[in-house]
Fold this protein.
Amino acid sequence: MYEDDEHEEDDVEKAPPWLISFGDVTALMLTFFVMLFAMSQVNSEKWDAVISVISTRTKIDTNLKPNPNAEKNISSVEMLPALPPEYLSGILKEKLADDPVLSKAKVSLMDERVIISLPSRTLFLPESSLMTQSAERSLFRLAGVLNKFGNQIVIEGHTDPSPVKTGAFSSNWELSLARALAVSQYLKQAGYPYDLTAMGEGSGKYRFLNSALSEERRYELARRVDIVIYADAGGQ
């Protein structure tokens, strides 16, 4: 009987030593991952409390309507694009041709700018910044044309080199600035909705006029108000 038992034990194949070590390592790794999984579980009570706070603070009342405080907000401001100077030049020449005052203006295209040169004699009383009634009517029409686009506009006043003879202004610069301000202010009153920049140049640009012209003609061209329209947008 004992001999049979010994034969049975010999017939059973014993596991190699490395398999025992592998089993131990596997058991340890399984234990390690179980611990990681247990640590990664969020406490359900704390999680519910956090969700409750977030839901309360971000709850939106659908019955409320926006009530903007600013005069202009993103949803109500409409920005006009700046138009190409070449296109503007053609439009302005066409629009100004039918007006008795504006038809005397010269529309020039220079260095990516459109310049509307308005002779002072058609706008103001002599050596004054007071505009005539016909000039006011014409500027009212001009404001309706200018507010159709969003280009930057600068108003420049110019005079001839001769000293002013009236006591209302102490220099040509003051006279030119007063006239530029008068034009810009009236354009605003007539409905131009954007910002305007007014500048007084005095007789500083007289030397750039064509020297081949007579002095009388150069003086006449020097007394003007330029409406300079730039290629970029601005003033909105």
